[in-house]
Design a protein that fits this description.
By secondary structure, the protein is α/β, with parallel strands linked by helices. It contains twelve helices and 17 strands. Strands 1, 4, 5, 6, 7, 10, 11 and 12 form an eight-stranded mixed β-sheet that branches. The chain starts with a strand and ends with a strand. The chain binds cytidine-5'-triphosphate (CTP) and magnesium ion. Cytidine-5'-triphosphate binds next to α3.
């Protein structure tokens, strides 16, 4: 049998909210509800320690299956109150409501290590910053070897016996492992999780939100295309027909701006490139217009959960002059991509290179995309 105590009785003074920290909302749930969901898959009994006066409210929030008890004046006092409500178990996990994003997998790894025979198991992360010990006057007195330090997290797991023994006095520490180690037991460290960060101040909540919103990861891509002028061909560029201009070579309509944008989108999403998506193995796309390829690309990346934040494309060549038709081109490209923001720029290259010599047109595009969950 595995029991779990969730320490949620703190007031969250450093957070500075008018409600207990465990009741702060993170995404669609409170910190406490997140913490419970990380533990519930491994625990047979869950005891939550809550601030005095919030028992009924939290009982309603967490439901009947969970034991709610009034916490103590310190975290260790709260854990002792939780221990008193455990009905008997082989192992106990102690978890902070303030670490809402610890995963079920982490809880399962703690339990697995206990089952392998350790009496105390805690997650820890490497210490990245140099640490120093400061004296009362504010001077650094020692620099402990960083490689021997770990940032300790929860859930922490113990045999019930060892945790009860460690708490048999009125000892106070910021975590249970410290008391267990002080009682002479070996504490095993396993790999922790960055996402199991402790919410102490509002800025920590912003970091936690970013984890939740894996939903909001951004990526960028660049795409390039160039074609040489070919007499007798119509010019298509940036989704528009340019009736008075010489066209360019190519099996498709040769719209370098549209093609560069497609490749930028494929680069940003890691979904191949123009050739792999519309190349010779897909004869239905032979001769497809730039706008058709943009629409298809948009459909492909949307299906994989991406949306577009911004597109920019720079057309490089002596002609045509883009300026007069920029607005028209922007609205055509934007419409093909579901109405996103598009910027179109144009430049010449001072007489140098393929396009400077007047032999053709090139385009470089960049795309910023967002992965939605
Ligand atoms: N905790 C508790 N009982 C206490 C104090 C803290 O159960 N008397 C819990 C908190 O609810 C939190 C965890 O212990 O989930 C870690 O404590 P901390 O992050 O320090 O939370 P608070 O004590 O609430 O915050 P602060 O120190 O800023 O007041
Ligand atoms: Mg505290």
């Amino acid at each position: 049998m595995i029991a779990a105590i969730i320490a949620a009785a703190g007031s969250g003074e450093r957070f500075g909210a008018s409600i207990p920290k465990a009741l702060i909302q993170l995404g669609d749930r409170t910190l406490l509800e997140h913490a419970i969901s990380a533990i519930s898959s491994v625990a047979d009994q869950i005891v939550v320690t809550v601030p005095a006066g919030f028992e009924d409210q939290i009982r309603t929030l967490v439901g009947d299956g969970i034991t709610v008890v009034t916490g103590g004046a310190t975290r260790s006092g709260s854990v002792r109150a939780g221990l008193a409500a455990i009905n008997g178990a082989e192992f106990v996990l102690v978890h902070d409501a303030a670490r809402p994003l610890a995963t079920r997998e982490l809880a399962a790894r703690v339990v697995a290590a206990l089952k392998c025979g350790d009496v105390a198991v805690i997650p820890g992360l490497n210490q990245i910053d140099t640490m120093t010990v400061v004296d009362k006057e504010g001077y650094a007195t020692a620099t402990p070897d960083r490689s021997q330090l770990r940032r300790v997290q929860t859930p922490q797991g113990f045999t019930l016996k060892v945790l009860q023994e460690a708490h048999s006095g009125a000892g106070d520490a910021t975590d249970d492992a410290a008391l267990v180690a002080k009682a002479g037991h070996k504490v095993r460290i396993i790999d922790g999780e960055e996402r199991a960060l402790k919410i102490t101040t509002p800025s920590d909540l912003a970091i936690a939100l970013a984890y939740l919103g894996g939903a909001h990861s951004f990526s960028t891509g660049v795409g390039v295309d160039a074609h040489a002028f070919a007499t007798g061909r119509e010019l298509w560029l940036a989704g528009l027909h340019w009736p008075d201009e010489v066209g360019v070579e190519g099996h498709s309509d040769g719209d370098v701006a549209a093609h560069a944008i497609c490749d930028a989108l494929f680069a940003a999403t890691g979904l191949g490139d123009l050739g792999s998506n519309f190349g010779t193995s897909r004869p239905e796309y032979a001769g497809a217009s730039g706008v058709t390829l943009l629409k298809e690309t948009f459909a492909i990346i949307s299906k994989s959960g991406y949306s577009i934040s911004h597109i920019s494309v720079q057309i490089i060549g002596n002609r045509p002059r883009i300026g007069a038709r920029r607005v028209e081109a922007i609205s055509t490209l934007s419409a093909a991509l579901g109405g996103v923001e598009v910027a179109i720029l144009a430049t010449t290259t001072d007489g140098m290179g393929l396009t400077g010599e007047g032999k053709g047109i090139a385009a470089i595009a960049s795309a910023l995309v967002i992965k939605s969950a």
